[in-house]
Amino acid sequence: MPNIEPFVRWAGGKTWLIPYMSELIGNIQIEHYHEPFLGGGAVFFSTEHAKKSYLSDANPQLINTYLQVRDNPEDVIHFLENMPNTESDYYQIRDEFTLDNTPINAARFIYLNQTSFNGLYRVNRNGRYNVPYGFRNTWVYHMDRVRSASCKLQNARIEVGDFEINKYRIKPHDLVFLDPPYTVSHNNNGFIQYNQNLFSLDDQHRLKVFIEYIKHHDAYYILTNAAHETIKEIFLTQGDRIVELQRNSLIGGKNATRTSISEYIFTNIPEVNHE
């Protein structure tokens, strides 16, 4: 199956990493693929995996949407096609958005994701989605993105939960792709307050223990994280390798400017010798 475009946009998504994945993976043969911080799933949708994939995320509304896209794509498309892109319709649909695992709620999730301000996912203290309208007047959603994603997801187990939810399903030669919320800012000493509530520094240390479990079971991992000295101290292990990559990022809203950001990639996959 050819590489396909994710059906949602996601803050911190890894579309920029896709051109590097073949070199990172090298010549290894993957048995099963695991992605416990699924988000927009850009890496999952862009790479070929053997046998079965195990996908999870802590966001229940996101996972409900993945399940409906996998199991009921035409129903999701039917509802999505009838959602107008206007400010008044946006706020009405936002008010109707729930935790229900139904095709119409999955359509609401995709609609809000595509038409909200910057595609953010944010909830208030009551767990209600509260991102404002994005005024994307020229927005056009290609429904084949849902159909293509559904095909790709047919052989995937999809669950909501902590990143360790499929820990005991990891077998030799599996690949675990890890893209946690970044706890620290890039290239400075600042902590990201919002993400601290999602994924704390203690969670980063817990993730390090999880990586040791992966390696102990003769599986492979790829971890993306902020290029920050604290992150290097936690995750850099003798025998593994670290790659620092540059990516472009838009900072700001309407008058956004493009800047270069460094990211760390950690992996135990051996480097390919091109000699």
Biggest pleated-sheet summary: 7 strands, mixed
As a percent range, the share of helical residues equals 25-40%
Oligomeric state of shown chains: single chain
Q: Report how far apart the termini are.
A: 31 Å
Beta-strand segment tally: 7
Q: Could you say what the CATH architecture of the largest domain is?
A: 3-Layer(aba) Sandwich
The CATH fourth-level homologous superfamily of the largest domain: Vaccinia Virus protein VP39
Describe it:
With 275 residues, the protein is an alpha/beta fold. The two termini are 31 Å apart. It has 2 domains: 15-58 and 161-267, Rossmann fold, CATH 3.40.50; 73-147, Adenine-specific Methyltransferase, domain 2. Helix 3 packs across helix 6 and helix 4 packs across helix 6 (103-115). The protein has helices at residues 18-25, 42-46, 60-71, 73-81, 87-96, 103-115, 144-153, 193-198, 201-216, 229-235; strands at 32-35, 52-57, 156-160, 175-178, 220-226, 241-251, 257-267. It is built from 10 helices and 7 strands. Helices cover 35% and strands 17% of the residues. The chain has a 7-stranded mixed sheet with strand order 3-2-1-4-5-7-6, with helices on both faces.
